[in-house]
Amino acid sequence: MSSHAGGDALLVHTASLHTANVEENASHLIEKISPPEDPWACPELKDTGTPWTDLDTKRKALRGTWAFTRIILIFTSLYFFICSLDFLGSAFRLLGGKTAGRVFQDSELVRNPVCGVMIGLLSTVLVQSSSTTTSIVVSMVAADILTVKLSIPIIMGANIGTSVTNTLVSMGEITHRNDFRRAFAGATVHDMFNWLSVIVLLPLEVATDYLYRLTGTIVENMRLETSQDANKDLLKAVTKPFTELIIQIDSKKIGLIAKEGDKDYSLLKTCCLSKTTTTTNETGYNFTKTDCLKKCTHLFVDSGLTDSVIGTIMLIASLILLCVCLFAIVKLLNSLLQGNIRKFIKKFINYNFPGKAAYFTGYIAILIGMGFTILLQSSSIFTSTLTPLVGIGVVSIDRMYPLSIGSNIGTTTTGILAALATDTQNGTRQLQNSLRIAMCHLFFNLSAICLWYPIPFMRFPIRMSKFLGNTTAKYRWFALFYLLMAFFLLPLAVFGLSQAGWEILTAVGTTFLCLILSICIIKILQRKRPQWLPKKLRDWKFLPIYFRSLEPLDRLFKHMFGFCKVCHHHHHHHHHHEEEEKMAGNAEEKESSML
């Protein structure tokens, strides 16, 4: 009996082990079959706190007070965040404003449309404001220094340069992998839209002059009147009281440097109220005299420091303030927007109209983006404020895209207002020209929206920004590499090639574009129709690893900057986040195949 019982027990034990192995294998199989979690899905925060109904009166009062305090702190942080962007702009104007002004003088460079784009891009990066670049171009057109036709590429370049600010802001999320993925994609969706628009519409403009002809027809049929009081600071009145205590910049002097390159102006504002009188001497010669009625009282007015030194101080201070405010906004929002509150806000911002009307939701978002940018008079401030919200998952990439392109339309109002302030003492021709270039900016953005938004398949900027987001999530250093390449090294390389002649620039540019186009076509065929390709081209393994992967560069940066844990964060946590890496890899594969 005992031997039978022992045998039965052994059989039961063996059966249970077999069942456990089967269950384990089945669970592994289910994990493999089930699709990976979408890294772009906005995360849900569970409300781990005690429900409101279970709290007594004292705790309810404490929770309500703490929530109200956090709302006040968020608005305070947002206020100083906008101020820090203003200070950053002032710092860049002091450091690069004179250079930007002198760049406009080189008529030989401006005659090349590609160089014109790069001048607009670099100038906007240097002064951190497309509004300033546009206003300078408008005033130079009004003064007959630039023609309307030569100014159009500069305006296109200014459109690209304005998106550098929110790309810089997204770097604040670099320590959180998935937040950084979303924030960087949310920032670069604006970049991709602007770059693609210029790549397509610049050759079209050079070939057909469609913007030049269209705006010419519109302006000729308008009854024009000038307005010296055209208001260009609608909502900056809120931040001005604080920012003007620290520093004041006279942006008009950048335009003066562009017009009169011989004189060396200081961009620091010293006189806040002046009176200009014109008198005639005995010989009948008219001369003007400017008297300062009120001296400025900002922090640097009597410091005796040069523009470069003040610019450096302001750059460091503004970046510190920006990072602190950004950190505070993200932490406070994460703390406040939990559970049901986050769900409600996320549903409201990312809401789509029901049924077939859902298609038109994006157009409402474009109008909202345009309206806020007109109020703020800065697309940089609007998109930079949204970038951290994309990072923490409150705003989706698909909603950030129409808001960003809407802000592109809103920022064109600055140029139109600057044009309306043109002096018409010598007739309306100058007003017509300045308004014409401002209208070119508007219709360029409208053309770009018609190209990259109405047809969902044509929304390439979303797919391209997601590809960049996945890359930066895997290699943190790629974000800085992208910034340097897109906004500094590429424009400088174009300037260098243009010095060798437009033939060399055209040859190199055409070869580069053909190479990129060929790679895109091969990648699409690899994904959709691999049988159409030779066996060798069905994957990229025939190429050396440094032509098809960022791993060699990643290893190089790891050795060079071994002390920087953030730059190669994924190396240190490889074992802990193996599944997350697989998920990111799948997402990257998917995005690259879509491209």
Write up what this structure looks like:
By secondary structure, the protein is mainly alpha-helical. The protein has 25 helices and two strands. The chain has helices at 2-33, 57-103, 107-111, 113-127, 130-142, 148-161, 164-170, 177-208, 210-220, 240-246, 252-259, 307-336, 339-349, 361-376, 379-391, 397-410, 412-420, 429-452, 460-474, 478-499, 502-528, 545-548, 551-560, 569-572, 578-594, and strands spanning 271-280, 286-295. It has a two-stranded antiparallel sheet. A hairpin with a 5-residue loop joins strand 1 (271-280) and strand 2 (286-295). Helix 4 (113-127) packs across helix 20 and helix 8 (177-208) crosses helix 18. The longest helix is centred in the first third of the chain and has 47 residues, at 57-103. The chain is globular and about 85 Å long. Mean pLDDT is 76; it is low at 26-36, 569-585 and 587-595.
Question: Short description, anyone?
Answer:
The protein has 595 residues and is mainly α. The chain has helices at residues 2-33, 57-103, 107-111, 113-127, 130-142, 148-161, 164-170, 177-208, 210-220, 240-246, 252-259, 307-336, 339-349, 361-376, 379-391, 397-410, 412-420, 429-452, 460-474, 478-499, 502-528, 545-548, 551-560, 569-572, 578-594, and strands spanning 271-280, 286-295.
Structural class: mainly alpha
Radius of gyration: 29 Å
Determine the N-to-C terminus distance: 72 Å
If strands are numbered along the chain, what order do they take across the biggest sheet?
Answer: 1-2
Beta-sheet strand percentage?
A: under 5%
Number of strands: 2
Overall mean confidence score, pLDDT: 76
The proportion of residues forming helix, as a percent range, comes to 55-70%
Treating each run of at least 4 consecutive H or I residues as one helix, how many helices?
A: 25
Q: What profile does the largest beta sheet have? A: 2 strands, antiparallel
* Helix-strand sequence: HHHHHHHHHHHEEHHHHHHHHHHHHHH
Q: What is the molecular shape?
A: globular
